[in-house]
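We append the chain.
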Amino acid sequence: MKTTRYTHPNGDIYNITHEAIASGWLQGKLHTTWSTLLGVFGAPHIIHDVDSGDGKVRAEWQLDINGVRVAIYDWKETRPLEDVRAWSIGGTKREAADNVRAVLEAATAAEFRVEY
């Protein structure tokens, strides 16, 4: 189990545990690139090159960010993963989407937009 820590410019600390724990439902849509997600979160926990069974998700990160379960995935995208710009954020709390945005901002020093 890999753990990463990022400190946001406002001083908040985000501890990320990489483990297959995600469950829940859509909490928001994140606008970013495949390469940014790889740079911040590493390789996805789940990756299907061709067929995921139901064909709805090809790549998924499953994370725990400060005790909040999070999934980041490409819901029903047909473009190559490198071309996807809208990623779904799943979880059981809206805080899941807020935490993903904050971690990306802490890791990259850029601002990110999440739609709820």
Remarks:
- Residues 2-115 form one domain.
- The first strand starts at residue 2 and ends at 7.
- The CA atoms of residues 26 and 90 lie 4 Å apart.
